[in-house]
Amino acid sequence: MKKATYIQFKVPKTEQKTQSDGIVKRTFKSAIVGILTFIIPKANPDFENKIDLVENWLIELDFETGIPEREIGLNKNGQVILKMPFKNNYGYWTDNNLMLKDFKKHFKTSEINNTDFEKYWNLFDQIADKKNVG
């Protein structure tokens, strides 16, 4: 069995913009995003709309390299709302260059054990089966 490190962290709150975009700017942004999404396939087609709802991340990282391998997103109620990689969803954290040291530097992380991570990982499968996700 491959050795891994497991961490969790709360998503830092971002400051709300004090001025909202005008209708022309919003329409332009929406059009650009629509065109790019059509041309470039989404990395996480089933979960793009859920990533912003994640309050806490659970991340499995390779013990030797510190590279993220699996991730789980929990909402504000502590419910599993996504896991990646999963079917056609590559991942949010697994698709970047952050390693364990970077997570520790940029987020307030705490270690969790493999048992807790696997519990949430498997719980998503039960939820997905009921909701026919992916």
Please tell me about this protein's structure.
Strand 2 and strand 3 form a beta hairpin. The model has no long low-confidence stretch (mean pLDDT 84). The chain is α+β, with helices and mostly antiparallel strands and 134 residues long. Helices cover 31% and strands 22% of the residues.
Write the topology of this structure.
Elements: E1 4-10, H1 23-39, E2 56-62, E3 68-74, E4 80-84, H2 100-106, E5 109-111, H3 114-131
Antiparallel strand pairs: 1-2, 1-5, 2-3, 3-4
Number of helices: 3
Q: Structural class, from helix and strand content? A: alpha+beta
Helices and strands, in order, run as: EHEEEHEH
How many beta-strand segments? 5
Largest sheet: number of strands, sense, barrel closure: 5 strands, antiparallel
Beginning-to-end CA distance, first to last residue: 28 Å
Strand arrangement across the biggest beta sheet: 4-3-2-1-5
Q: Radius of gyration in whole Å, from Cα?
A: 17 Å
Q: Return the average pLDDT rounded to an integer.
A: 84
The coarse overall form would be: globular
Q: How helix-rich are the residues, as a percent range?
A: 25-40%
Q: Provide the β-strand percentage band.
A: 15-25%
Low-confidence stretches: none
